[in-house]
Amino acid sequence: MVGIRAYGAYIPLYRLDRAEIAKAWRSPFPVPGEKAVANYDEDSLTMACAAAIDCVRGIDRGEIDGLFFASTTPPYKEKQCSTIIAGAMGLRRDILTADFSGSLRSGTIALRAALDTVKAGSAKNVIVTAADIRLAGANGLNEMFFGDGAGAILVSSTKVAAEYIGGYTISEDFMDQWRSDKDTFVRAYEERFIRESGYTRIVPEAVNGALNVCGLKPQDITRFTCNTDDPRHLMGASKILKFDTAQVQDTYFMSVGNAGTAVPLMTLVGALEECKAGDTILAAGHSDGCDALVFKVKPQIEKVRDRGGIKRHLESKRMMPNYQAYVLWRGLMYMEPQSRPGRPTESLSALWRDRDWGLPLRGCKCTNCGTPQYPMQRVCQVCQTVDKYEPYSFADRKAKLTSFSNDNLAITEVPPLTIAVVDFEGGGRLTCNMTDREPSDVVTGMAVDMTFRWMHYVGGVHSYWWKCKPVRF
Amino acid sequence: MESIKDKVAIVGMGCTKFGERWNAGADDMIIEAAQEAYADAGIEQKDIQAAWVGTMFSGDTGRCLSEPLKLNYIPVTRVENMCATGSDAMRNAAYAVAAGVYDVVLALGFDKLKDTGWAGLGDVPFPGTGRGLIGSQGGSGPSVFALLATAYFAKYKLSPQEGKRMIGMISVKSHHNGAKHPKAHLRREVTIEQVMNAPIIAWPLGLFDCCGVTDGAAAAILVRADMAKKYRKDPVRIKALQISVGQNQGFCRSDFEYTSVYETVHAGKRAYEEAGIKNPRKEISMAQVHDCFSITEAVIMEDLGFSARGHVRDDIEAGFFELTGGLPTQTDGGLKSFGHPIGASGLRMMYEVYKQLQGKCGERQLKNPQLGLTHNLGGFPASATVSCCIAGL
Fewest Cβ atoms closer than 10 Å to its Cβ: which of A52, B21, B25, B71? Predict the structure, then answer.
């Protein structure tokens, strides 16, 4: 049996009330609801990493033998991002990694590829993680619509929580939304054409194809999930397919916004959270054609409930103060730099040597005196024993804040920078930045956990590392 | 193991005006400090047999000293130990004299920080990835030391107001003293209200909790102690020279509380032992310590055994460290007011001790001082390079 073994999601802590956007531009077309906004130190890679970590909660990462990353907004054009995510997660080296990009359907394409890979027996456990952080022109509808988020699915041949029954794919060149190699902001063609000649024709065709392959009727489907540029288009397609409103999975348009490539996986995760054994999910991903994949939920689903998923991430939120914060975080305006020397370029060879240690936040535990330490110390900090240690991971451990400073002089896009000294449960210390916090709420003794974040961009290199944050849930 | 005590004497010292010396280059300041020291010792440059020069940012090799001074091809060593650079240059010079290899040597420290174009310090290159280092994560020097303040306030249950007042009083005292020194960088008195209401640099440290970034140079002529009286009637003898260097403990160990800097404790203890001091609070007449930030001075007072653990606040409130107090500290204004050209600071501190012991400090003059202590703290509270020197008549 091949299918979904576990699921996970990530939605940034911060939300922007769409009324703030309308206010900034005196928009005549206010859109209700709010959108999730990645912090300044988040991108598609870090969000996909967070969702993948959420997905493998309680699962031995040594079992993972593949990681697929899907996004239309990867931080690198030439350079694989899935290897960075796999490195941060401390996955094995002898695994299959791949980046899927170019289409909002990349998430379901990656999911199909993972299902086929596992089915073929060339891998046993493949994580598919999708995220997007798309930019739209200011004062347009898509600026209101677009939100940030990530979803992840662990495809496996063991402990299957939702069995893959079958699927159907249509590939069709269709220009609805796109970005050329020279574009920063998403372009869109005329809305009525997109809806009538595109979405509401292509999606039903693929879904009907999948139903046909699996020998199912619309009423056999407990939950139909699909991404859409506009919730009204999804309603239109569902009507054509004769799905009841109750069968159609919410796309989180009012709470997250259109998270692009992440939506097909996020909505599938949302459906998995709500479905029980015996239910059938039809998960579709639209753009440049359409994928439609059918899953049958198994009793095993009850064993993978304990994770952040969509629900907990949705509930845990903090409103952004205004639209300026959004402009600042997305780097859409030239900000006066700090009157300090710029950042030095990274030593790529030093970072490479640190790939099994610092990247996954792995330190060591002295096998003589038992003291956990970061960074790895060849000579024990406590008993000075030489070269007697075992690797010790800090990334999943809870910690408490021992000291901090809110630094207004720091080199950062969004001052102040919170410098944190954290002590882990079970021992070990780290000095790092704190993110997703209100500076005035930071107090010694507070509980924190670790999150993999974007650090800075110097010399064409995006640097990533771990920060602490207040525990979300 | 022998002690350095009374083996080496300082017979001449020089110190430039500290400040934003836009009109002077590093070479100008080096010449200025060296010439004052020669004149003070009554020697000529050709009498110098070897030299040690300390700078962190402003020069490389011994040539940064020999080139401006034209030292006639004598041995010159450049020393770098962050903020303890100047003190370590003097330590190495003193050891060479104590070893009997040289009779007359020069130790000079300088830094020309204001040529970087930045208001604050320049960049410190680091080896490796920088992961886990505050600076490479974007943090500034003030935030590194603010960690001491946050943890100290938390441990001793001081409210932000109480804590900021405690460290603020330190700055008020230092500005008061520095205003009386013609060579100090920042020569204006400040009130506790000004200090506490100043803009926040790195919480909880405000503008007046941070020392100046300064240009300057200071120099000392060291000779064998048994020859010292040949040069002057009031030579100052070295009683102790200690350095303690950290092992990254505060970045690795969760038992490091950020309320004490271990290296200060180690260097202090060893210096007292070397100088034969049993009760530093009583026996030390004055201390010039590394007040890069006001909180640093507070913690140093406890680490050096001047104040009981957790009780420096009582001594601050009682005026114990003021010019008229039991243990005057930063009698020239300290890093806070006199300024902090990194490589020069240790020798600048010794300059003040030297002048105080000789009774030449005018309205800042202490009554009959016997022993003076200098202390530098370079790097991070979590892993520091600390020097502790004691000198007396």
Answer: B25
The residues of B assigned a catalytic role are 83, 340
Q: Cis peptide leading into A375, omega within 30 of 0?
A: yes
Ordered by start, the domain boundaries in chain A are 3-329, 395-470
pTM of the model: 0.96
Reported ipTM: the value is 0.94
Joined together, the tokens standing for residue B99 give 């070893």
Task: Over range B240-254, report the average pLDDT.
Answer: 96
Does residue B203 belong to the interface with chain A, where contact is any CB pair within 8 Å?
yes
Q: What is the DSSP letter of B335?
A: H
Q: Do B138 and A340 touch (CB under 8 A)?
A: no
Which chain A residue's Cα is nearest to B125? A344
Model pLDDT for residues B340-385, shown as the tens digit of each residue: 999 999 999 999 999 999 999 999 999 999 999 999 999 999 999 9
Within a 10 A sphere around the Cβ of A121, how many other Cβ atoms? 9
Between CA B248 and CA B19 the distance in angstroms is 33
Which residues, at least 6 apart from A460, have a Cβ–Cβ distance to it below 8 Å? Answer: none
Six-digit token string for B93: 């010079």
Taking residues A162-187, report their average pLDDT: 97
Please count the CA atoms within 13 angstroms of the CA of A304 that sit on its side-chain side: 30
What does the buried/exposed string (b/e) look like for A254-287 if buried means 16 or more CB atoms within 10 Å of the residue's CB? Answer: ebbbbbbbbbbbbbbbbbbbebeeebbbbbbbbb
Span A53-90, pLDDT tens digits: 999 999 999 999 999 999 999 999 999 999 999 999 99
Look up tokens 């690797």; give the residue: A391
When scoring A403, A433, A468 by the number of chain B Cβ atoms within 10 A, the one with the most, hence best to mutate, is A403
Domains and CATH numbers, chain B: 8-117+215-221 (3.40.47.10)
| B160 Cβ under 8 Å from any chain A Cβ | no
CB atoms A344 and B118 under 8 Å: no
Phi then psi for residue A129, to 5 deg, are: -130, 130
What's the CATH superfamily of A3-329? Thiolase/Chalcone synthase (3.40.47.10)
Which residue carries 């013609």 as its tokens? B182
Q: From the list A371, A407, A445, which residue is nearest B202 (CB)?
A: A407
Quick check: helix, strand or coil at residue A73? coil
In the structure encoding, which two tokens stand for residue A281, read together?
Answer: 């999910």
Of the partner residues A377, A411, A427, the one whose CB lies closest to the CB of residue B138:
A411
Q: From the CA of B211, how many Å to the nearest CA of chain A?
A: 14
- Check if the beta carbon of residue A101 is closer than 8 Å to that of residue A131: no
In chain A, residues with a C-beta closer than 8 Å to the C-beta of B210 are none
Q: Look at residues B244, B239, B326 and name the one whose alpha carbon lies nearest to residue B290.
A: B244
Torsions phi, psi of A91, nearest 5?
-75, 165
- Torsion of Cα atoms, A287 then A289 then A290 then A291, to 10°: -110
Q: Do B151 and A371 touch (CB under 8 A)?
A: no
pLDDT at B125: 65
Put simply, the answer to whether B131 touches A465 (Cβ < 8 Å) is yes
| pLDDT tens digits along A459-469 | 999 999 999 99
First to last CA, chain B: 24
CATH architecture designation of domain A395-470: Beta Barrel (2.40)
For the stretch A418-435, what's the b/e string if a residue is b when 16 or more beta carbons lie within 10 angstroms of its beta carbon? Answer: bbbbbbbeebbbbbbbbb
Q: Do domains A3-329 and A395-470 have the same CATH topology?
A: no
